[in-house]
Amino acid sequence: MKNSLGAKTIVPTTPVWAVGTYNRDGKPNVMTAAWGGICCSKPPCLYVSLRKATLTYSNIVERKVFTVSIPSENYTKEADYFGVTSGKTVDKFSITGLTPVKSDLVDAPYVKEFPLIIECKVIQIVEIGLHTEFIGEILDVKADSDVLNEKNLPNIEKVKPIIWNPAGMTYHKIGKSTGQAFSIGKEL
Amino acid sequence: MKNSLGAKTIVPTTPVWAVGTYNRDGKPNVMTAAWGGICCSKPPCLYVSLRKATLTYSNIVERKVFTVSIPSENYTKEADYFGVTSGKTVDKFSITGLTPVKSDLVDAPYVKEFPLIIECKVIQIVEIGLHTEFIGEILDVKADSDVLNEKNLPNIEKVKPIIWNPAGMTYHKIGKSTGQAFSIGKEL
Predict the structure, then answer these.
(1) pLDDT score at B1
(2) Could you tell me the pTM of the whole model?
(3) Which of A8, A71, B110, B127 has the fewest CB atoms within 10 Å of its CB?
(4) Does B170 sit within 8 Å of A175, measured CB to CB?
(5) Is a pLDDT exceeding 90 seen at residue A129?
(6) ipTM of the complex
(7) Is the Cβ pair B36, A35 closer than 8 Å?
């Protein structure tokens, strides 16, 4: 018998994504979003869901592009800062000392110090309720050399991403592997 | 200077969600999805993106409801099995020995042995490309007593969810906390 907890957005793992955009005046901004994920394999797409009140919302509506920068665990503090403050009142790059780099594919900046970044072009905007979902086609994924494995793919143990846990309001490291996908299940 | 890896769906962390539905004949089915996430706070919503070829796709189109059951790390094998096989050819509950329970809120089954489940009613269907996104309003979240904390919320250290890493094709445990959200960033 399971206990009813009510209609809440409490799943244990959500991503911690720093969404990069330019303000109307060209100043780089970044905001952490946890309502995000991959939503299509072909074309490769991800989404971020944002409240209309955010500057990032307005920036994406204006330029129809954004980047996602994935922080390593040692940037938990900066990622949290990107989520609790607004670019309307502070310069988040300046306060954190992190570096905005203009994407060469989309008119949006990414966070240089974060090891993995994704450049997206908005292909659909879905109104849901408090949040609007921006579906972005992934134009490229870029990573630092030191987080890549021999197949030229990001090694999760080197990227050291974090997840957010809405129920506990905590960020967490990724732990040991519990199995290989499309493989361990075949034992059954 | 970051290395270009191409337009790929490789973010380090995606959820591992067992999506429960009934087949046309009323038989319970379950499929693991990694293309999923929270997409709105009010109404509380999550989505799963599915290929039209899956039985779960047809089942959701038919009944417009689904559940999400979140496996603990000790069910990695079963979760993988739910993702690599099709309910068109096998009875996934029977093979894994796991138990379908009919939700009392939606016409869909959940996995009894998984500690946290979410009951959803489809409110939007978004065609993207290979995948179709089903946006479900969260009607309730239910959890086993032994994974709840003193605030009656799921404790991630007891739920022990796993994440999937598309680039390495590996499942991973969740590790230690790296900080409290809406708090650690204020140090900056």
Answers:
(1) 82
(2) 0.97
(3) B127
(4) no
(5) yes
(6) 0.97
(7) no
